[in-house]
Structure formats: structure tokens, C-alpha cells
Amino acid sequence: MRTLTYHEAIPGHHYQLALIQEMQDLPRFRRDRIFGANSANAEGWALYAEQLATEHGWYEGDIPGLLGQLDAELFRAQRLVADTGLHAMRWTRQQAIDYGIPPHEVDRYTVIPGQACSYKIGQLKFLELRAKARAALGDRFDLKQFHNTVLRAGVVPLSVLETIVDDWIATTLAPAARPA
């Protein structure tokens, strides 16, 4: 349940979406997520939030919680295979169910091709951007500022998010480049 809480609540979807809705300086179409709620950005953030919990020791001393987190990771790997199997390998619904995916999940992947993959693609992009910022900024890298930057962007395409992070990196480095 803790993993689900990190994904759906804090620091996951609820936190991300509540913050977006409160930002009056963000254009309304972005506050209202006109480009979709099941994007690689929104779901990627939620998976990234789950990983933050692991990275920062939030499961320390909680073996059942850690096992739940590992079980969620295993399920995510299974559904990547099932989503790909259904759409690229022409699996039947029953083959995906036999692979271990509940029928209601198989139905979701059938009508939303690539949705399961979008979660992982988004998470990997958040991790890539964080590593890029950390490498570029060195000691000036601030995880909280990175999170503020990606969250305050709203739910945008990943290419737009990368541009926003690149701009943040450049702005953060700019004072160091100015002569004293």
C-alpha cells in the first residue's frame, strides 16, 4: 500500500496535479491537462515518485512495504511485456491473461496501446533529466529545485520538459559565467 500511496498521492499524482491546478501563472490548458492525463509525463512522474521512496530509504525497517514495492516493479515489468505482446506480437487477450495480467488490465492495454510503456518511458526520462542536470551542475545541483522545475512545468510532452530542464540548467549556471 505504501508504494501505491507514493504513486497516487505524495509525492505522486495528487501532489503533482494539485500543484499544477494551483499555479495561476500556468496557462489554463496546461492546468487542466488538455493534452491528456495518461501521458508519459504524468505517469512517469508517479513511477519516479515510487523510485524516490526507494532511493531515500522510506522503506527502511519495513520489509512488507519493500516487498510491496518490489511486487509493483515486477507487475510493471510484466505489463510492459503484455502491452508489447498484444500490439507487436499479436497476442490474444487470453495470452496476456495467462502471462499473469488481470483481465481488466488486459482490456485497458487493448484499448490504450502503449499506455503501460508510457509509464516507464516517462520515468526513464525523469531519471535521465535528473542525471543530466546533476552532471551539468555538479555541486550546484539541488534535487528540490530540480523537482520544482519539472513539476511547475505542468504535464507537457517529454521533449518540452527536456527543454525546460535545459533552460533551468543554463539559468542556474549563468551566474557562475558572469564576471565578478
Automatic annotation (TrEMBL):
It comes from Lacunisphaera limnophila. PANTHER family: DUF885 DOMAIN-CONTAINING PROTEIN (PTHR33361:SF2), GLR0591 PROTEIN (PTHR33361). This is DUF885 domain-containing protein. InterPro entries: DUF885.
